[in-house]
Amino acid sequence: MFNIVPQPNELIITGGKARFVLDEDTTISKLPFIDEFRRFVRKQFDLHIHRDSQATENTIRLELTDDADSDEGYRLVSRDGCIYIYARAENGLFYGLQTLKQLLLQGNGVVPDLYIDDKPRFRYRGFMLDSGRYFQPVEEIKRLIDLMALHKLNRFHWHLTEDQGWRIQIDKYPLLTEIGSRRSHTNFGLRPEGGFYTKDDVREIVDYCHRRFMEVVPEFDVPGHCVAAIACYPELSCFSRKLKVATHWGVKHDILCAGKESTYRFVFDVLDELFALFPDKWMHLGGDEAVKMRWKLCEHCQDVIRTKGLKDENELQQYFMSRVARYVYEHGFTPIMWNYDGVDSADMLDRRIVWQMCGANEENGLVQKELAAGRRMINASAFPYYLDFPYGWVDLQRAYEYEPGISENILGVEAPLWTEYVPDRKTADKRIFPRLAAVAEAAWSAPEDRSFARFEEGLPEYFDLLNVYHVHYATLKQAMPGKLRGKAQSLWFNRRVLHWQGLHNLIDDARVEAAHKNDCSRSR
C-alpha cells in the first residue's frame, strides 16, 4: 500500500496484471509545468523522460476534462502500462504529478494498476514565511516554495515588514531599505543582520509561485510592528521619536500614529507600489499586537476619537484598519488581518476584511460571533499551526489531530513560520517538517480520511521523499518528544525568549509620559 501526503480522498489498487514502469523510453505530455517533474525523475532515477503528447505506450498522459467538480482536483489512473492524469484545470494536473512523484519513489519507478480520485477540502492552503525578522535569500525562498508545492499548498503568505526589518523596495520611501532593512545585532551571536528584496526579486518570486499554481499574499503590517519604518521616518509615530531598527523580538509600544493624515498617505503610497507587484489580489495588513500606549497620550489620535465619535483606542484601531482596508478593497484587492487581540467587539471593523485566526479571542467568543455574522476567516491558530514553536509545545500528533473547523466561512488553513528564533535553514527545516505535512493533510484531506496512526505509519516513506530535497527534518522521536523531553524543550525555548523587552517598555513608557506632561505644562 502507498502512503501519500496529503492523503488522497480515494486510492484503489485495481489488481490488473499490467503495471507502469518508468524507464528510458517513458514520455510525458507537453505542458508548460512538467519540467520540475522531469528534473525530479532525472535526479532520483537518472532518467531523461521526453515530451510527447501523442505517445500511447509507456507514457504519462495529462488530459484536461470537463467531468471533474474542482479545478484543483484530479484523477490518476495506472492501466495498460501508462499513467493517465485527468483534471478540469492545469493546477489539478500539477497536483496529480505531485502524487505521482510519491508513487514512483515508493515503488522504485514501478506503479501497479490503480485508481486515485482526489480533491482538496479547502481552497486556501497556506504557509507563511517571516522575512521581516530574518532575511532569506531568493534561492532559499524558492526551495521552500518547491516544498510547499510538493504538499499541494497554494498560498505563499510573505511577511515583509517588521520591527526588526523592512524587506521590500519602495521607491517613494528609499530610507525604508537604506536604513530599515538592517539591524545592528540579533538574538543569536549579537551579529548584524539585514537585506531586502528588490522589485525584480519580488517579480521573480511571484512568477516562481505562479508556475507552481500558487498565489502570493504579501503582508504590510500596520499599525504595529512598524519600528523599522519609524526608525527611517520618525514623523510616522505619535511623537516623532528617533528610534533604531529593533534588535530583539518582543511587542513594541511605538506604532504608527492613527491621528495624522500623513500616516495614511504613507500607508497608501506603500500600498500603491505593492499593488503593482502582487497581482493575486490579496493584501495582508497585519493589525496584530498594536499596543495603544502612545495613542492614549497623542493629541492627534485623541482628536480623531473625539471627532469620529469613537469610544476608545480599540475603536480607533478599528477605524484605522477599516480605512486602510477600504483603500485596499477599492483597488480590487481582498484585505486580510490577524484577528483582534485584547478586544471583545469588532462591530466597527469592515466586514470585508478576512480574519486570520491566530488563537486570540477564541475564549471570549468573538471569533465564533464574527464567523456567525459572516466574516470569512483563515485558520492559523498558534496552537497548533505556528511552526516555530518547539515540538515540546506542539508535538506532531497535536498538530495533526487539530480540527480547523467546519464553518463555510473558514476559507482554509495556514501554517506560519515566525523566524526570530529560526535564524538558519537547518533550524527552519526541523521546525517545519514533518509538521507541515500534518497541516497539509488538514488542508487537503477529508476529515474522515485522516488518521494519525496511518500518518505515523507512513512517515518513513515521507522522510524518503524529503531526503530527495535534502531537507533537515525532525525525526519522529524529535517530533514526538514525550513529556520529559517535551518539558526540556519548552524550558529551553522559554529561556531563549526571555528578554528585557517588558522592562524596556516600562522605562520607555515612563519617559514618554514624562515628556508628554512637560509638553502639556509648557503649552499652558
From TrEMBL:
The keyword Cytoplasm is assigned to this record: no
Biological processes annotated in GO: carbohydrate metabolic process; glycosaminoglycan metabolic process
Active site: E289 (proton donor)
One Pfam family recorded for the sequence: Glyco_hydro_20
Domain of life: Bacteria
GO molecular function: beta-N-acetylhexosaminidase activity
Keywords assigned: Glycosidase, Hydrolase
EC identifiers of the protein: 3.2.1.52
Catalytic activities: Hydrolysis of terminal non-reducing N-acetyl-D-hexosamine residues in N-acetyl-beta-D-hexosaminides
Gene3D superfamilies: Chitobiase/beta-hexosaminidase domain 2-like, Glycosidases
InterPro entries associated with the record: Beta_hexosaminidase_sua/sub, GH, Glyco_hydro_20_cat, Hex-like_dom2, HEX_bac_N
PANTHER family documented for this protein: BETA-HEXOSAMINIDASE, BETA-N-ACETYLHEXOSAMINIDASE
Similarity remark: Belongs to the glycosyl hydrolase 20 family.
Protein known as: beta-N-acetylhexosaminidase
